[in-house]
Amino acid sequence: MAAALSDLAEGVIAGLTRRRGSGETVPAAAAGDAAVARMGAWGVTRAVLPDDPLLGDLGLPEALGAAGIEVLRWPDARGRGWPELLGLDGPEGTAGVTVPTLGVAERGTLVLEASPGHGRSIDTACAFHLPVLPASRLRRTLGEALAETYAAGRRAPSAVSLVSGPSRTSDIEKISTLGAHGAVAIHLLVVEDR
Description:
The protein has helices at residues 3-18, 31-42, 53-58, 60-66, 82-85, 122-125, 142-149; strands at 22-26, 46-49, 70-73, 94-98, 102-104, 109-113, 128-134, 138-139, 160-163, 168-169, 177-178, 185-191. It is an alpha/beta fold and 194 residues long. The protein has one domain (3-150, 157-167, 177-191): Rossmann fold, CATH 3.40.50. Strands 1-12-7-4-2-3 form a six-stranded parallel beta sheet, sandwiched between helices. Strands 8-5-6-9 form a four-stranded mixed beta sheet. Strand 5 (102-104) and strand 6 (109-113) form a beta hairpin. Helix 2 (31-42) crosses helix 4 (60-66). The protein starts with a helix and ends with a strand.
C-alpha cells in the first residue's frame, strides 16, 4: 500500500482506537479470514451483510458461512422479523457488516450512506459492527469527505451516518455506557486495494 494511504489508514484506526474501537489493515485476499477471526473473538453466530458486490469480491460471505456464522443479506433479512434477527428473541451474537463510503483519517470517522442495498440500521441495530473499507476510500479531513458526499451533481443519499466508535452515552448519572444506541464494539478492516 502506498505510503500516503498507509498513513491515512493508520490515522482512521488510531481515531477509532481512541474511542474504544479497533481496526487493522489487511490485504484483500485476507479480508475473509480477518472477518472470521474478529467475529470469532466477539462470539458472533450471525452476520447481516449489505447487498454490496465488494463483500462478494473479497469472499466474506463464503468465509463467514464456512466458519459456521449464519449470513443474512440486507434487505432480504428483514423478512425474518427484526426481533429474532437481531437477537432480541433468539441468539444475541449478531454483527452488522457495513461498507463505508469514505473513512476520515484526522478524526477516525466512517461515512456510511444509506441506500436500497445498505440499510441505515445495519450498524446501529446489531450488537457488533464490522466495517470493511477499501483503502482507496480514505480521505484526510472530514471537510474533504463531506464535500465529496454532497458534491454538486451527485444525488444526495437519503441518510448519512458519521461513525467514530462504538455507541456510547453518559446520560444516566454521568456513567459511560457502551451500546446504548448501537453496537457495543466496532472493528474496522481497511482492505488494501488490489
